[in-house]
Amino acid sequence: MNVHFTEEQKMLQQAFREFAEEYLAPNAAKWDEEHSCPTELFPLVGELGVLGIFVPEEYGGVGLGHVERIIAMEEFGRASAGFTTFLFAHQLAVGAMNDFGTEEQKKQYLPGMCDGTAIWSLAVTEPGGGTDLYNHKVTAEKDGDDYIINGRKCFLTNSHNCDYCIVTAKTGVNEKGRNILSAFIVPMDNEGIKPGRLENKSGMRGSLTGDMILTNCRVPASAMLGADGKGAQIALKEIGEIGRASMSAICVGIMKACIEEGVKFANDRIIYGKPLAKIQAIQWHIAEMRLNYEIGRALIYRAACYKDEGQATTLWNGMAKLFGTRAAVESAQHCIELMGGYGVITEYPVDRYMRDALAAISPGGTNEVHKMVIAADTLKTFA
Ligand SMILES: Cc1cc2nc3c(=O)[nH]c(=O)nc-3n(C[C@H](O)[C@H](O)[C@H](O)COP(=O)(O)OP(=O)(O)OC[C@H]3O[C@@H](n4cnc5c(N)ncnc54)[C@H](O)[C@@H]3O)c2cc1C
User: Fold this and answer.
1) Which of 44, 81, 95, 261 would be 242's cystine partner, CB 3.0–4.6 Å?
2) Whose CA is nearest to atom 28 of ligand 1?
3) Contact yes or no for 219/138 (Cβ under 8 A)
4) Residue 1, pLDDT score
5) Cα–Cα distance measured from residue 368 to residue 140, given in angstroms and rounded to the nearest whole number
6) Torsion of Cα atoms, 339 then 340 then 343 then 344, to 10°
7) d(CA 74, CA 79)
């Protein structure tokens, strides 16, 4: 494991930062206010190589790894956590296609997923509970050479702006009585699929999150992603690895933004005839934010290195996400506290940072889930 950036990674970081400064930072407050998602930027992000950064070049990707992907998520997250949520939700589907697609499916879909021709979503969560994965009510029933999908998905990002949706559905029950899940590629021009309710989120408002309704949605058997019965594995791997890691990196970006905002404010604000930054109590807020940021960064880049090395990442992504979401909320609070009354004036971005940090807690698995994973590993490893 090597968390020091190579020269190439430093250049990428610079390129991603410049893109974020030019296209994201100036518009983040507007997207947040309007709860809008700037899909017109999607092909530009494709051109930059971010969408398929970890996809092999033969399928239209850049052929790099997850450290590079996390660099993009951190830099973009610092400028607009909402917009970055739009991107990583697409990457959930890219990961699913790359890891589980047949050769034919990869050749057909990955180039357009990487260059930004088509926006994708991954619909796993259902109203009956995201954590209770196997309790799927969405079904896919075989009908001749086709499958017919019925049911309702909720909380999926890119629900109202995707061109394709990967839908997990129950295709049977195993001998132990547990639902067998499979995943299907559904183009949004299929008349059996329609976005439903659009959620009015408190944070991550540069992305759209809502329901997807499937009504007698007929797809050919070739629309099944990979093999029958792979749905749970696809959901756990992509949400657990791409989703969890992305949210952690976005939170690191939020923490950096909190530090920058706090430092600027502390230097500019004059109180008792001197900058606020001279007051020791204010410096403690700054120290706490810095500590949060450095620990959050260390955890997520370590997890990304493990992923690139082909090692298990469940524990490290879980720790990075649990710490990252908590620390981002805490950092936003430190920033608000050091700014006094200005901290809650919406002219400043820190109110958005707080709402974005809170909205990062559930996607990619809740804190309770991460604690279960961390505890199980710790009880085994430290016994
Ligand atoms: C901004 C945003 C974007 C999202 N994007 C997507 C997406 O693109 N695709 C998608 O499929 N989903 C998406 N989700 C859904 C997300 O994955 C779910 O919110 C998450 O899995 C939790 O599911 P839930 O909200 O149904 O909560 P529940 O599963 O109902 O959990 C409620 C509470 O119970 C706790 N809990 C549940 N089970 C246990 C247990 N066994 N032990 C202890 N505690 C437990 C949870 O930790 C939580 O605190 C998104 C959500 C948000 C907020």
Assistant:
1) 95
2) 129
3) no
4) 59
5) 30
6) -170
7) 9
151, burial (CB in 10 Å: exposed 0-12, middle 13-18, buried 19+): buried
Cβ of 202 less than 6 Å from ligand 1: no
* Distance from residue 363's CA to the centre of ligand 1 (Å): 6
User: Is ligand 1 within 6 A of the CB of residue 322?
Assistant: no
Domains and CATH numbers, the chain: 7-119 (1.10.540.10), 121-231 (2.40.110.10), 233-381 (1.20.140.10)
Q: Using CA atoms, how far apart are residues 29 and 221, in angstroms rounded to an integer?
A: 44
Per DSSP bridges, beta strands 270-271 and 274-275 are antiparallel
Q: Whose CA is nearest to atom 24 of ligand 1?
A: 130
**Ligand 1 pocket: which of 80, 86, 131, 167 to mutate (most atoms within 8 A of CB):** 131
pTM of the entire predicted model: 0.97
Render pLDDT for 215-253 as a digit per residue (tens, 0 to 9): 999 999 999 998 999 999 999 999 999 999 999 999 999
Three-state helix/strand/coil letters over the chain: CCCCCCHHHHHHHHHHHHHHHHHHCCCHHHHHHHCCCCHHHHHHHHHHCCCCCCCCHHHCCCCCCHHHHHHHHHHHHHHCHHHHHHHHHHHHHHHHHHHHCCHHHHHHHHHHHHHCCCCEEEECCCCCCCCCCCCCCCEEEEECCEEEEEEEEEEEECCCCCCEEEEEEEEEECCCCCEEEEEEEEECCCCCEEEEEECCCCCCCCCCEEEEEEEEEEEEHHHECCCCCCHHHHHHHHHHHHHHHHHHHHHHHHHHHHHHHHHHHHHHCEECCEEHHHCHHHHHHHHHHHHHHHHHHHHHHHHHHHHHCCCCCHHHHHHHHHHHHHHHHHHHHHHHHHCHHHHHCCCCCHHHHHHHHHHCCCCCCCHHHHHHHHHHHHHHHCC
- Is residue 125 lining ligand 1, measured as CB closer than 6 Å? yes
